[in-house]
Amino acid sequence: GGMSVPTFIRTMKLYTGMTPKQYCLELRLKKAKKLLSDGIFSVSEIAAQSGFGSESYFHRCWKRTETDPPTKYRRIHTGVFI
Length: 82
What we know:
The chain contains 5 helices and no strands. By secondary structure, it is an all-alpha fold.
């Protein structure tokens, strides 16, 4: 036997403080931050590479956790302005 979906969600939230959906979103945002810090790709390329369906969805998710927009985050961490 396996675990039911509701039990899995409760268990994951107990151990991580997040639902599976929140955890996956956090992983995608961490990947986006790394790519922004690398300074190689545009924000739209980073959104796609991080698993966001569109650049606008990426921006909406980003705003939920970050005060600076992605372009400012990149400037702070790399000095790159693309």
